[in-house]
Amino acid sequence: MASIVANLPPPLFVNGRRPLLRNLGKFTVFAIGERQLRVAVVAKATGESSESSTSLSVIKSVQNVWDKSEDRFALIGLGFAAIVALWASANLITAIDKLPLIPSALEFIGILFSSWFIYRYLLFKPDREELFQTVNKSISDILGQ
């Protein structure tokens, strides 16, 4: 169960003495004080998140790989190597960023590639479905499913 508590300024709710938002049936609204300038809104979520969520499936896949692995020392080594590679690439990018003219050229190349990617995969529905299938196939190949 999750809950959210927010203090909202009065212009969102009150215009003079008339409320601007009339239907607040899903929210519980409490006045903090009789003449204070803020209103508290409390929203509570009940129920569980869906099991088909991508983040949950990735976590479960990683747990399955960890449980099924016979060489956990190699998996720890791969994780350490990934952290070192991330650190090294961040330092390399920082060093390249300090060179004159190269960051502007790389930014332009990034804008061109992003434009092409949007046109190729995200603009039309059949292309989005193709991208989704490609990503799912790559994930299943990596995880060995």
Automatic annotation (TrEMBL):
<feature type="domain" description="Cyanobacterial aminoacyl-tRNA synthetase CAAD">
    <location>
        <begin position="60"/>
        <end position="144"/>
    </location>
</feature>
<dbReference type="InterPro" id="IPR025564">
    <property type="entry name" value="CAAD_dom"/>
</dbReference>
<protein>
    <recommendedName>
        <fullName>Cyanobacterial aminoacyl-tRNA synthetase CAAD domain-containing protein</fullName>
    </recommendedName>
</protein>
<feature type="transmembrane region" description="Helical">
    <location>
        <begin position="102"/>
        <end position="123"/>
    </location>
</feature>
<dbReference type="Pfam" id="PF14159">
    <property type="entry name" value="CAAD"/>
</dbReference>
<keyword id="KW-0812">Transmembrane</keyword>
<keyword id="KW-1133">Transmembrane helix</keyword>
<feature type="transmembrane region" description="Helical">
    <location>
        <begin position="73"/>
        <end position="96"/>
    </location>
</feature>
<dbReference type="InterPro" id="IPR033344">
    <property type="entry name" value="CURT1"/>
</dbReference>
<dbReference type="GO" id="GO:0009535">
    <property type="term" value="C:chloroplast thylakoid membrane"/>
</dbReference>
<keyword id="KW-0472">Membrane</keyword>
